[in-house]
Amino acid sequence: MEPILKTENLWKIYRTGKVDVPALRGVDIQILPGEFVSIMGPSGCGKSTMLHVIGGLAQATRGKVLLDGNDLTTMTDAARTMLRRHKVGFVFQRFNLLPTLDAYHNIVLAQHIRADGFDPHRFDVVADLLGITSRLKHKPSEMSGGEQQRVAIARAIVCEPKIVLADEPTGNLDTKSSEAVLNLLASLNKDLGQTIVMITHNPEAAAYGHRVLHMRDGLVVDGATVH
Amino acid sequence: MISQNVLHRPLRTFITVLAVAVEVTLVIIVVGLTSGLLLESAKRTEGVGADIMVQPPSASVFMAFGGAPMPIAIADKLRQLEYVQAVAPVLVQFNSVNGLDIVYGIVPETFRAVSGGFVFHSGHDLQDPNDILIDDVYSRSKKVRVNQTLHILEHDFHVAGIVEHGKGARLFVLMPTLQEMAGARDKASIFYVKCDRPDHTPAVADEIRDLLPKYEVRPLKDFLTLMTSSNLPGLAAFINVMIGIAVAIGFLVIFLSMYTTIIERTREIGVLKSLGASKSYIVQIVLSETTLLCFAGVIGGVGLSYLMRAIFIRLFPSLTILITPGWIARAGLIAILGGLLGASYPAWMASRKDPVEALSYE
Prior knowledge:
The structure holds 2 protein chains of 2 kinds. By secondary structure, chain A is of the alpha/beta class.
């Protein structure tokens, strides 16, 4: 089976003043379609940077990122934007819902940006699956953290992305809400075959994945390849 | 999303809309005042009933700007021309005490011969050197009655009569009195010429041009079209400066408002980018919000203009403020274009934000 995501000797170097700071130092990973992969590692090891690069939010310094056969490292900013729109769904630690919009419009926004028009069937399926049907008219300020994160997940998957990239999705949640969100991600993966890459600090959360990648000092030190 | 964003900060939205409304009002009222003043002045000049107006060389169509350089004896020469029925010399003075008014110095008999005479609301014609006639609009606006004393041009006049408006000026005194006050003895500013038949006007105008080369000879049939801001020295520039100030207000307020909005919503822009929003999508959101604010401002500005006109006319009944659909549309367009220009840099700035930096913005 062809990997949905593959990186080859992936480097990301930030320049701070006159000093080069490497955040990724030759990362090689492969993720198959339908996999749920957790990425663990200490703070500053390059987890978030890797998520941004493989999701097309940041440009790699060198190496290759192949997402569904597209090499992100050779793409223009506009092409990476198109790729994010059609193939990537992001879930963030701080939910990042638009505060002026209610849950319904936060989710529909993703379909609107994709410009395919509103797909009511897909919307209903996602809202039902995430258990947010009764909260659709509420703004983020009127919802709990767990509810907000479920809306954020709905927004990420409503356009049927090839891959969902979750950056510490339970980092701002209590234990009960964390468990609910992780169960949701697991069920999305199991029931819909959604490919998920999740960054986490929590080993219990990481255990929800099929595979755990360990990172240290900008390198994947364990779990990089599929067994 | 656009309307929700606009309503998210009601005070900022209100101030922005108000600024655009002030911009629109400023344009509409300034243009309305100047064109109203010109139109009203032109209509009154036409209302004299003459066919031709003769002025000194290079005189302005706006007669208050003229002096009194023409010998009054010219009137006798004009009367001798073929087809000329009557000639009325008029000395024009500009009064700026208690408002801006044109004062006509007239010879009652000749002015009556050209204009057909005044329609009196009360009082009598000019008899005494200190007599003054005022029109009904002036009487209402200044609350002046017959037999009262009116202090204008550093002189106390006795109000002899109140006449129907529309005969050139709002204030009329005897020509010798005004000549004496202006130090322009035997001089006139304008000659109003009445032809025996209207279709003789072109022939008489040609005769006058032959008699008085270089003098301004204007058939009054065309007078309304001449009374535009472009024919008045400096007025077009004044209007443009006022429009420029109005546009600057709108531009700066929209710029500041959208700039602070973009800074405040940096993280949201990062979210939009993570969802795959293109640069043009983000620019479109910012400009759509601006357009919505400007539209609200234009509607408010038009309403405010009518309110201001009502207040001005209540306070100064002699004022004419002309609000035309053409200038409403132009003021609206100016406000929207100025607003979009003001929002273009913040929109560009938003579209260029790095998504990773934007998402980590606190």
